[in-house]
Amino acid sequence: MMEIVTGIIGLIIGFIVGRYVLNKIFQDLELKAAEKANSIIKEAETHAENLKKEKLLEAKEKIQELKAQFDADELERKEKIQSAENRIKQKESSLNLKYEQYKKDQAQVELAKKELTVLLENNKSKEEELKLLNSQIKTQLEKIAGMTQEEAKNELIFHIVEEAKLEAQSQMKEVIENAKLTANKEAKRIVIQTIQRTAAEHAIENSVTVFNLESDEIKGRIIGREGRNIRALEAATGIEIIVDDTPDAIILSGFDPIRREIARLSLHKLVADGRIHPARIEEVVAKTTKQLNEEIMEVGERTVLDLGIHGLHSELIRMVGKMKYRSSYGQNLLQHSREVANLCAIMASELGLNPKLAKRAGLLHDIGKVPDDQTEIPHAILGMQLAQKFKENAEVCNAIGAHHDEIEMTSPISAIVQACDAISGSRPGARREMVETYIKRLKDLEAIASSYNGVSKSYAIQAGRELRVIVESDKVTDDQADIMAFDIAKRIQTELQYPGQIKVTLIREKRSISYAK
């Protein structure tokens, strides 16, 4: 028990001693910390005082600099003011001198006015004397000449006008001949080179399609019981189906190539499938129509891709595809438009114009022939309106509208498109004309030439490519012959429509006949 008490007392004593020691240590630490803090505060105060002195010195230096700058600016401003005052004084002095000079000039002007008034009065009196003398001279001249002044004037004017006409005509002829030596040769080179560089196939398209069959037995299935199949097919496609004695073939007749193509493809599917009845016919025709519309879009996209034309509206691309199933005078419209586009690009390059713009206008020039709705508007104007609707270039729109002279040309590309359209349409075998239309054009050519006074005979030769006019030598002079040939060519150009160009040859000859007896 004593040991326990002794141990407890030892622990208590150790605790008291330890606490005393800890207090002593804490007191020493507090003293050291206070000393350290005081030292830091003193150092900070010293540093702050030094910093304050430095900033004061810097501020004084800055004030000195600003004062020096202000003094310099003030001196410069005073110098400018002094300079301006000097200039004003100089101007004032100059104005005073000018004002004095103005007063002197004004006095001289007044003196000159007085002298001029005197001279005018003298001139009036002399003018009256001249008028009287002129009247006397005119009276004497009229007596000598035997005609009045007005008659002499008219006679002189008539002779001068006639001489001027003849001289102008000879000069115009000379200018035209000189231009032909250069321009005609260069134009022929460009056109021939352009045509040679563009290969084109020509095939006349008909309004009928022949559908070949494996055997004549299929004809009965196509006709159906009491003709119901063929009636359903005609009603669905709008095409007349002619079944005659032609072996292994039937004829699809219609003016619309798209309808004929739908009918041909539908018949092909129906014959291959073997199920031919009205319900099946309507289903197949509907599917074929949808497929053909997709094919039209593909054809348009492939065409613009082949020609390198970009940024064309999708509706215009669809119309380009529809050209594949349209023809003009038997010439496939898409082939014609592609050929015109290539011709335009080559010719524009030769002439230093924009070939891409020319190719675009050439492709779209007949876009008005494939509208979705029938209209009485000329196809050139309709095509121009469609191009404007789909935000095409203004030069392209003008070329489309002006390629048949419905509107005025505003760009060289318009003339190129018109020329290339004529080149493509006038290639041998490119187009087909009805005999009646061809004969009527020849008669109209001869009638225009025969309507002129002095024409004895007129002949349209070389398939209407040349008009030969024979005039009477005693009624038409050489100069008048040149004017008449020019006028006939102009009338043909404005009154008739024709592919290519027509040469007007006017012949004037004098024949002297005598008989030896």
Description:
This protein is mainly α and about 525 residues long. The longest helix is centred in the N-terminal third of the chain and has 144 residues, at about 1-145. It has helices at about 1-145, 150-195, 215-225, 230-235, 255-275, 280-305, 315-320, 335-350, 355-365, 380-390, 395-400, 410-425, 435-450, 480-495, and strands spanning about 210, 240, 250-255, 325-330, 330, 455-460, 465-470, 505-510. The chain starts with a helix and ends in an 8-residue tail after the last strand. α2 crosses α8 (about 335-350), α8 crosses α12 and α11 (about 395-400) packs across α12. Mean pLDDT is about 80; it is low at about 200-205. The strands form 3 sheets. The protein has a 3-stranded antiparallel sheet with strand order 1-3-2, covered by helices on one side. A 3-stranded mixed sheet has the order 6-7-8, with helices on one face. It has a two-stranded antiparallel sheet with strand order 4-5.
How would you concisely characterize the structure shown here?
This protein has 517 residues and is mostly helical. It has helices at 2-145, 149-197, 217-223, 228-237, 257-273, 278-307, 314-322, 333-350, 355-364, 379-389, 394-402, 412-425, 435-450, 478-495, and strands at 208-212, 240-242, 249-253, 327-328, 331-332, 455-461, 466-472, 503-509. Residues 199-207 have low confidence and may be disordered.
Task: Kindly report the spatial arrangement of strands forming the biggest sheet.
Answer: 1-3-2
Whole-number average pLDDT?
A: 78
Point out poorly predicted stretches.
199-207
Q: Please report which band the strand proportion falls in: under 5%, 5-15%, 15-25%, 25-35%, 35-45% or over 45%.
A: 5-15%
Gyration radius, rounded = 53 Å
Number of helices: 14
Structural class: mainly alpha
The total strand number stands at 8
Percent helix = over 70%
Question: What is the ordering of alpha helices and beta strands?
Answer: HHEHHEEHHHEEHHHHHHEEHE
Distance between the termini: 198 Å
